[in-house]
C-alpha cells in the first residue's frame, strides 16, 4: 500500500501550478542532457517495431505547467531522432504519432492539469492515475518514461520512524538531514530500496526492449526543509503544539546519490545505465538568494503533508512563520548553500 502526497491543487496563491519555479529550473537544466540521451542512445527502429505510435509516460506529473515543457522537449527530440537516424533524412509524412500518459496518484489535481493542456500540443494526452511504485501500463507498451523531481518521494514513511521505542525515532526533526542518529538514515535508505525494487520491477514489465527511462532528481533544496521543522518547534516552545506530534512527523522523501541509484538499478538487472551524473545547474532563485520565493515553492508541496498530520490551522501557521524567516534563511544560504545540483540518469531496457 502506498500513501498519496499530492501537491497543492488548483491555481491559487500557494498552488503548485503557480509555485514550481525550482522544478522548472531543474527541468531546464536537464533539457540538453535528455535530448542528448535520446539522440545518442535511443534506436527508434528497434523500439517502434511494427507500430507507428510512440508512447511516453510522465511519472509524477503533478498539475503543470512544468510537465508540458518536459513532454514537448521529449517529443521534439524523438522526432529529430526519427528523422535523422542513420543520417538519412526521412519524409515528414510518416513521423510517428505520440501518445503521452500523465501519471500521478489518484488524489492529484488532474482537473487543473488537463484544463491547462497546451492547445497546440503535438501529442495525444491521457491520464494514468496510480502510484508509480506499482504497475500502471500493459506489458511492453511504453517506449519512453520520464520522471523529474518525483523519484525521491517514498511510498510511505519508514515504519521505524513511527515507533517511539525504535532506535530510529527521529526526535525533534522532520527529516533525515541533520539527524545524528544513523538508524534514521538507514531507515530512509531501506525504504527507498524497497520502493525502487517495486518501481523497477513494474517498469521492466511495461517498457519495450530498447526503450528508455530518464530520472532527474533534485539535491539542491534538501537542507532548506529543516526550516519548516524549526517553525514547528517554535510552536512547541510556545505551548501551541504537542512535541510528540513533531517527533512523529517525518517527510517521506529520500534524495538518492548516484551510488544509491546504481545499486537499485543493478539489483533489478533489467536496465543498463547509459548515462548518470551529478550536474550543477544555474538557479536564478538561489543565485539571487530569493529565500521567500523558494520557501513558498516548498510550501506548495509540503503543505498537504503538514495538514494531514497537524491539521490545517497548525500547518498554515507553520508555513506562514517559515516564509517570515526569509531574512534568516537568506543569511544562512549566503554562507551555507551549495550550488544547485541534480542527479541525472538515463537507463535503457535490456
UniProtKB/TrEMBL annotation:
Record's keyword annotation contains Magnesium: yes
- Gene Ontology process terms (BP): methylation
Keywords (alphabetical) are: Magnesium, Metal-binding, Methyltransferase, Transferase
Q: Which domain of life is it from?
A: Eukaryota
Q: Which InterPro entries match?
A: MeTrfase_7, MeTrfase_capping, SAM-dependent_MTases_sf
Q: Does the keyword Magnesium apply?
A: yes
Which GO MF term does the entry hold, naming one? metal ion binding
Q: Which family does it belong to?
A: Belongs to the methyltransferase superfamily. Type-7 methyltransferase family.
Question: By what name is this protein known?
Answer: S-adenosylmethionine-dependent methyltransferase
